[in-house]
Design brief:
The chain is mostly beta strands and about 150 residues long. About 10% of the residues lie in helices and about 55% in strands. Strands 1-3-4-6-7-8-9-10-11-12 form a ten-stranded antiparallel β-barrel.
Length: about 150
């Protein structure tokens, strides 16, 4: 009986750890529900989040309006420390802080200087992920994007 309780306890803890990040999964940009300032909006974007330790690994690809592709990837903990980013013209590090089970704040930096901040929110039903990004892009333009993603 003791080993059964231990096994059940183990699976409960594992389940809580896996459920701790509502963003885990694959998400597709809903261009029609999103807003990009300045425009134009991208043609498409797909993001994938997977649990990694006590943090997350994020991969994704965006196809810009001109057809160029950007692949953006990082693995980071939710501890507010800077972690390396590859493929993002706006930054080379990211710092993540978990606000609650559905909300994360991110700070993207390039050369140690903050370029953009992002607020990631997963809906209560787990079907929609919204990224609100503000700051300055690689071209020096002020940006305010609200990107709405649907769970795949």
């Amino acid at each position: 009986m003791s080993s059964l309780k231990t096994a059940i306890g183990f699976f409960v803890v594992v389940g809580l750890l896996l459920a701790a990040d509502a963003a885990v999964g694959t998400w597709k940009l809903n261009v029609g529900k999103s807003k990009f300032h300045p425009g134009p909006p991208p043609l498409s974007a797909t993001l994938s989040y997977e649990a990694s330790g006590s943090g997350v690994k994020r991969t994704g690809e965006m196809v810009n309006a001109d057809g160029t592709k950007i692949s953006f990837e990082y693995t980071a903990e939710y501890d507010g420390k800077d972690y390396p980013v590859t493929g993002n013209p706006n930054g080379d590090t990211i710092a993540l802080k978990k606000v609650n089970d559905r909300t994360v704040e991110a700070t993207l930096k390039k050369g140690g200087k903050v370029t953009t901040t992002a607020h990631r929110l997963v809906s209560t039903d787990g079907k929609t992920l919204t990224l609100t990004i503000t700051g300055t892009d690689a071209k020096g333009q002020k940006i305010h994007n609200v990107q709405v993603f649907d769970k795949q």
